[in-house]
Amino acid sequence: MATQDNLSEYLIAPDLSRRGLSRAVDGIDQDGKKSVLSVVEERPLTIFLNAQEIVTAMTIGDYPEYLALGFLRNQGMLPDDADVTGISYDEELETVVVRTATQTSFEDKLKKKTRTSGCAVGTVFGDMMEGLEEVHLPASPVKTSWLYALAAKINRTPSLYLDVGAIHGTVLCREDRPLVYMEDVGRHNAVDKIAGWMLSEQISAADKILYTTGRLTSEMVIKTAMMGIPVLASRSGFTAWGVEIAQQVGLTLIGRMRGKRFVCLSGDERLLRDADPALVDEESQRSRRKGGRA
Amino acid sequence: MATQDNLSEYLIAPDLSRRGLSRAVDGIDQDGKKSVLSVVEERPLTIFLNAQEIVTAMTIGDYPEYLALGFLRNQGMLPDDADVTGISYDEELETVVVRTATQTSFEDKLKKKTRTSGCAVGTVFGDMMEGLEEVHLPASPVKTSWLYALAAKINRTPSLYLDVGAIHGTVLCREDRPLVYMEDVGRHNAVDKIAGWMLSEQISAADKILYTTGRLTSEMVIKTAMMGIPVLASRSGFTAWGVEIAQQVGLTLIGRMRGKRFVCLSGDERLLRDADPALVDEESQRSRRKGGRA
Fold this sequence. Notes:
Two copies of one chain form a homodimer. By secondary structure, the first copy, chain A, is of the alpha/beta class. Helix content of chain A is 32%, strand content 29%. Chain A has a six-stranded mixed beta sheet with strand order 9-8-10-11-12-13, with helices on both faces. A four-stranded mixed beta sheet of chain A has the order 4-3-6-5, covered by helices on one side. In chain A, strands 1-2 form a two-stranded antiparallel ribbon. Strand 1 (22-29) of chain A pairs antiparallel with strand 13 of chain B.
């Protein structure tokens, strides 16, 4: 069970008292019995970079400023030296505008490309892979005792994931301490919110570990690498391309982390196996709950 | 266990012998033991509508023509009367081009909007909600015996989901018979492939049921409604907005369908409870496997 000790380690933990993240929905079960279910919210948020409309994300709605900032950064639309002069969120219009001192080169690029090929989606994708070639992740050692401690703490932290399900969680960690726990309907949003927080607070990435409940797809691996975080761990599975990219950029990749079990797909030479798996508890039923999040 | 009887019901079942859907990846487990894992593939596929580049999807790579056609249709980019003159897939270039006899009105719209707001992603989203207002789903009755039979058959069908994990499955069904079982890294792709197949084969939607392993988000509900399918069932959870849209368009929505349990979120008045839940088997461990798919 969660204790104050657990929660006090976090800089940002899931805030279950926050309004608007879930809603009561009527359901009728297999026996015809009515019940009121607590169900996760999902709402559109349109992200602008200056006057340029970029994307409409589906999100639970918390931390829209971090989401916008992190999304733009992870898509390579905000260079390292971008001078962000303001971020304004309009709840009623469901928009968030990130403003920079000067027009970014991305906006030029976007305009040029849209003139020739019409849509920016493919462009965005192409640019992400491009930026990846310049990524050099530090070869940080990772103790398996940290990974086990993180999984145990995160699995016991009160969250929408445990409470309502149908949601993904991503946690920024340092050694055995979870720091920032973000949740969202799309796992990419949870990661983008963490990226936005790191950028706002000027947090260094080199000594961090990213833990996620979601699958390790190419998108997740690319985002983590773009953020400069050298370690990515998940309780879920992975795709072949996700593994390949992790190996290319030197990201330590850990999948299927449940109880004492895990599998290292990339960077095993940086793992310090200081914990005896035989002494690690298997997961409680509770932390395995809400399979409905898939 | 899967039997020939199960498989013979399908028009398209997962083809585990197909090359290129998974790949052997080396992993090292918690005890330092090396193993070779079979891991699902993920590759980019850029979809064109005539000369217009639309999107790059991440996909396992099977049925690219159905994926392209279904995506364009579900995004409202191909009107009912669109005359598709050809679909060409280039494996090396990882592109698929859908050609129509005349330029579609969508291309005009896209060009106009991109000139003003730069990117089509938000546009596409807006258009989807727009098209939804015209959707009128038939009030088809649904027997719970069909739903239980479908879940049991689908859970026992050999699939990448059972074999490799980290993937979503979506199955087009009629009464208690599963017809077309598509899988992909993104659940939206699996649905789009089914939509493409239905369009190619001119299959009517009014008597169909869509079953998915993934969450019932707004995107999934909108796609199902756009396809004209009146029933959507899932073993996973749901979002509040997904439920709201289902109620608006008259879609029968069933979530958390596992063993004898399910919850009906929309259209319960169309459910015929002809099966006694007490007589339904709980799920075997095997069909619950591969939680790594989240």
